[in-house]
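Appendix C reproduces, verbatim, an entry submitted by the partner laboratory led by Prof. M.T., so that reviewers can inspect both the input and the predicted structure.
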Amino acid sequence: MQTFSDTLGQVFQAMMANKLRTFLTMFGIAWGVGSLLVLVGLGEGFRSGQHKNFASLGKDLVLMFNGTIPALANQHTGMRPYQLTLRDEEAMRRLPELRGVTAELVRSDLYEVSQWSNTSGHVSGVEPNCTVVRYIPMAQGRFVDDADLHENRRVAVLGQKIAQLLYPGHPLLGETITINGTAFAVIGQVDKIGRGNNTWDDQKIYIPITTMQELFPLKGDNIPRDAVFSLQYQPTTKGDAVAAVAAVHRVIAYNHGFDPSLTDAFYDWDTVKEEKMIGAIFDAMDVFLGGVGIVTLGLGAVGIINIMLVSVTERTREIGLLKALGATKRSILSQFFWEGLLLTGISGLIGIAFSAAFMWLLQQVLTDKMPGWDPPRLVPWSAALAMGSLVLSGVAAGLYPASKAAALDPIEALRRE
């Protein structure tokens, strides 16, 4: 009785007897599997990069900036500008649709000097809850607190890049910098936030917003004393900002005397909505690529079936001899079945291994080099899909030719040239 090891030995002998054909068959399947995994990995890299970009701003964040009010809907002539203020923020804090609101006053035309260096970064007047609404990880020291705000203290928290510029290789806590000639005590440093060349937040200097309004208010005509650069908020319902945005629009429109239905009057960035839209795009891409991969693997299975049928034809006399010597239909069936299954299985594993190695290499070289994009990575579901499809393809590629071989009449098989 033929054992499983005997069957596998015969399978490998048959594969080695046609080395070039076996290599080309396996190469085609491995290439298809590897290409599928790399393509899906690229899509997931873009998804991951975009998610990290949004996360570097804050969770469920909507940013609103100063806008202009059109005279008529969808008309861009005779537009009247308006400034967001702390009064708007106070009204927004009372909205049940919001779980957090913070104001920010930014200027980039100020000059900062330390005993070691000087620069012109972005000075941002903030409130203590900025670290709750926004993503601001502290590397050392502390952030602005309520006492700093109420007492208009002249304290500063440095972003990661500004800290490197003003204090290259030197301790900074307790040191003093000047902003346009006014001295500020350094109380903390923010850890790195930006990715790649996106270093806007790393170039910020944070000071209390009350101090900012006292010393460095926004410039321009007819600008309220409590005007701010932006108002930033989070919806009460996590992952859904529709109701929050509508409520904020009503408040801002009421405070500034225009109809909230004038959507052109609002200049805001809903990261919740944008992240959902980007996620939907990549979901569709995954489905498309997965479908293409399955079709590709299906075509590969057809190719293997064809090759196995050719193999049955070439080995007709051998099959007849085996059957004449007492080989059963089951043993013949097993030999050709396992040959088709091993061809697809080993090829698939090779494709997965090489694509995983290639993506690992890209991760070592390109990680954090391109903002908004992460290097491709092996996605478990795509590897599982590929292997599952290959198993089915291998079964299909093995069963039909195997059944043809097992059904051969030994006498007729021996008569064939």
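The CA atoms of residues 47 and 281 lie 9 Å apart. Additional entries are available on request from the coordinating office.
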